[in-house]
Design goal:
The structure holds 2 protein chains of 2 kinds.
Chain A (H helix, E strand, L loop, with lengths): L1 H6 L3 H21 L8 H15 L4 H13 L1 H7 L1 H11 L3 H25 L4 H7 L6 H11 L3 H26 L4 H20 L4 H28 L4
Chain B lengths: L1 H21 L5 H16 L4 H12 L1 H4 L1 H5 L5 H30 L3 H10 L1
Classes of the chains: A mainly alpha, B mainly alpha.
């Protein structure tokens, strides 16, 4: 018990717990065929929350260790410019329809999520955290912070959105008769960020590449669009 | 590798500075990302020293979401009150987003396909 009292107060323990849990859940997810409903991030954070509650550890204590991982979100967001540049070079000639689809999709995602949540009397903190839900967590966490929402709630909602997107996309493609790989991939990237992109790779490499492009474009566009859209919808 | 990582941090710093100076309600790293993208477009290629740390970080991007995600434990009462609104909002808006994006892009499908074949 003395051992526990000593190590549970050290940042090192929570850093190790986070990485180990993620490695195990990633391995499990691969074994289960990569289902988005048991995404390693969703499973990891559930397991860690249960562990913290069982051991009576506060989030603050946990974060003292986990902050070293959290910090890397900043440089990782900047690094998104690299794949964005790679894709950008290839699709330069088609930039206009892609931009248009990305912007319309991003506005639809944020506005419809806020309006539906508002219609069901969600609190202001929830509305501001749900606004960036279609954007990769790296960017959504930053957006929620800036808007006055809850970054951790936002990152959770982003993950659930990703899973929903992967479930809804295939039947919608059938109904709308969308058969092109590039369109399928791009749409998944706009609506379901990195999880959609990972899913798009199952349609093929081209779908995955367009998914990655869409994820970067939507993230950057949404970060600049939401500070304008949120006051327009009369909240914030 | 180290130089590339320093570049990422410096672009992030530049982004954070611009956001503070201009009072923009945009995350600093996103501005850093846009700055880096503009520099890469101007330069025409990605230096190897930058590509290595960038791809290493992005390969494990999902892990980086876990610490913030665990923060959900501080919002249980909020989730209890708003779960139905949240669930409906996520399902409806994600479905709508897929429909809108696919419908706008579908007419360009053939051209996109050709372009990708060429490269």
């Amino acid at each position: 018990m003395e051992f526990w009292a000593f190590f549970s107060a050290k940042p090192l323990l929570w850093l190790i717990v986070t990485i180990v849990t993620f490695i195990v859940t990633s391995w499990l997810n691969r074994r289960l065929g990569g289902t988005p409903l048991l995404h390693p991030v969703l499973v990891s954070l559930s397991l860690i929350i249960v562990f913290l509650l069982l051991t009576g550890t506060s989030y603050e204590t946990y974060f003292e260790g986990a902050q070293f991982i959290h910090f890397l979100l900043g440089p990782a967001t900047v690094a998104l410019a690299v794949p964005l540049f790679d894709h950008f070079e290839r699709v330069k000639k088609m930039l206009l329809p892609l931009l248009l689809a990305c912007m319309a999709g991003a506005v639809t995602a944020a506005a419809s999520a806020i309006l539906v949540a508002q219609a069901f009397d969600a609190s202001l903190g929830t509305l501001l955290s749900i606004a960036p839900k279609s954007v990769t967590s790296a960017i959504a966490i930053g957006i929620a912070e800036k808007l006055g929402g809850y970054p951790s709630l936002a990152s959770g909602l982003v993950l659930i959105t990703g899973a929903i997107g992967c479930v809804l996309a295939p039947p919608i493609y059938r109904i709308l008769n969308v058969t092109d790989e590039a369109v399928k991939g791009f749409t998944l990237g706009v609506s379901a960020h990195g999880m959609g992109t990972a899913y798009a790779f199952e349609y093929g490499l081209m779908a995955g590449a367009f998914g990655g492009l869409a994820m970067g474009m939507t993230g950057a566009f949404t970060a600049f669009m939401l500070p304008v859209l949120v006051p327009l919808l009369g909240i914030g | 590798m180290l130089v590339g990582f320093l570049m990422l941090l410096l672009f992030q710093l530049a982004g954070e500075l611009i956001v503070v100076v201009l009072g923009m309600p945009v995350p600093g790293p996103v501005v850093g990302m846009v700055l880096l993208l503009m520099c890469l477009i101007a330069k025409g290629d990605v230096p190897e020293s930058l590509r290595i740390p960038s791809e290493a970080l992005l390969k494990h991007l999902a892990l980086l979401f876990v610490p913030a995600g665990v923060g959900l434990m501080t919002h249980f009462s909020l989730l209890k009150a708003d779960w139905l609104a949240i669930l409906l909002a996520l399902i409806v808006s994600t479905g709508l987003t897929i429909v809108v994006t696919a419908l706008i892009l579908n007419p360009s499908a053939k051209k996109l396909h050709q372009l990708e074949r060429e490269s």
